[in-house]
Amino acid sequence: MDLKELYSPIFIRHLGEAIQREYPLFQPDRLLADCLRADWPKLKLMERRDRLVSSLHRQLPADFEQAAPILRAIAPQFTGLVAVCLPQYVAQYGLAHWATAMALLKELTRYSSSEFAIRPFLIHAPQATETQMLRWAHDQDPAVRRLASEGLRPRLPWGIRLTQYVTDPAPIWPVLRELMTDESEYVQKSVANNLNDISKDHPQAVIDWAQTYWGQTPQTTWILTRGLRTLFKQGNPAVLALEGYALSAADHLTGCSLTPTEQTASLGTTTTLQYTMTAETGRSLPVYLGYRVHYVRQRQGTTFKDFYIKRTTIRPGETVSGQVTRPWWQLTTRKLYPGDHVIELLVNTRVVATAHVKLTVGQTR
Questions:
Q1: How many C-alpha atoms does 123 have within 13 Å on its Cβ side?
Q2: Block mean pLDDT (10 aa), the chain, length 365
C-alpha cells in the first residue's frame, strides 16, 4: 500500500467522529468533503496531511487555547505515522502559544511523533525550545526523550531542514550527551541518526565525539557504530580504525572475485553473485564485507547504494567465499532502468572486485 493511502476516507471519518464527541459543533461529513476534493488522488503523503490539517482548522475553535484540549483528548485513539496530522496542527496554528504548544506536543508524541512539528518552534523560538528539548532529554518516557533528539536532527527526512544546526550543531550536543547512555533502543536509534546527520557537515566533530565515548558502554558503542555509518562508507580512516578495520586490509587479499550466475536480468527477478577472497599468510584480517550497486539513472550517469554482507576475521591463508542475492524490483524509493549495472565487492569500503549485470525490461513482480 502506498503510504499516502494511510489518509483514507475511513481514517478521516474516524478522526472527525472522535472530534465531534469532544466538540459537538464539528461536522465529520464536512471534513470528509473538504479533504476529498478532485485533486485528492494526486496528493502525496505530506500534502494529504497538510490538507487534512487545514480542513480541521476550518472547524475547530479559532483560538488555539480552546482547540488544544480537544486534540489532547482524542490523541490516544490515533497512533503511528498517520497521527502526525495532530502534531502538525500544533506546528501550524500554535506558534503564538508556545507554552501550550510544548505541553501538547509532549503529550502527542506518546502516540505518534512530534519530531516534524517541533521544528518550526526551533526556528521561531530557538533558545526557549532548545531549553525545553534538554528538559525532555531527562523525561521518564522514552518517547519524549526520543523527541528531544529526533526533533533536533539537522537533516530529518521529510522535515524542515534546520539550517542553524547544519551551520553550527553546538546546541545539539547537550541533548545527545544526556542520551548517549539511554537504555531505550528507540532513543538510541535517534541519537545515532542525529550523529549521522551532523557527520555530513561536521565530520571531525562527530569523530572527536566518537573517540570520547567509544567503548564506555555497549549502548554508546552501538549508537556510535550507527552514527558513523556515512563516514564508514566513505572510508574515513579514523572511523575504520575506531571500529577495528583498516583500509590496508584489501592489500593483503588475493584471488578476489565477484561473479554473477547470470550476466543479464529482467525486472522482477533476482541475481545471485558468488564472491571469494584469500588472505595472505602472516596475520588475521578483520574485515567488513559489503557490495555496491551502481544503478542506471533515467538519463546519463548512475547512482550507487551500498549493501552489507557481514563482518568477519579472515585467518592467515584462509579463503572466504559466499553469495549474495540482489533483487531487481521496482520500489517506491528507487526506480530501476535498463542498462549495464556495475556491482562492486567491498572490503573495508575498498573495491576489490567488479561484476556487470545487464538489466532488461521484462515482467515486473
A1: 16
A2: 91 98 98 97 95 98 98 97 96 98 98 96 98 98 98 95 97 98 97 98 97 94 96 92 92 96 94 96 91 91 91 95 95 88 96 96 52
Nearest 5°: CA angle at 234, between 177 and 335?
Answer: 105
As beta bridge partners, residue 303 has: 295
The Cα-based distances of 277 to 33, 208, 209, 352 in angstroms read 63, 34, 35, 9
| DSSP for residue 305 | E
| Contacts for 217 with CB less than 8 Å, ≥ 6 apart | 181
pTM as predicted: 0.82
| Lookup: cell for 289 | 564485507
Closest of 5, 4, 9 to residue 37, by C-alpha:
9
From residue 130, how far is each of 119, 136, 324 by CA, in Å? 10, 10, 45
- Look up residue 167 and give its amino acid: T
N residues, the chain:
365
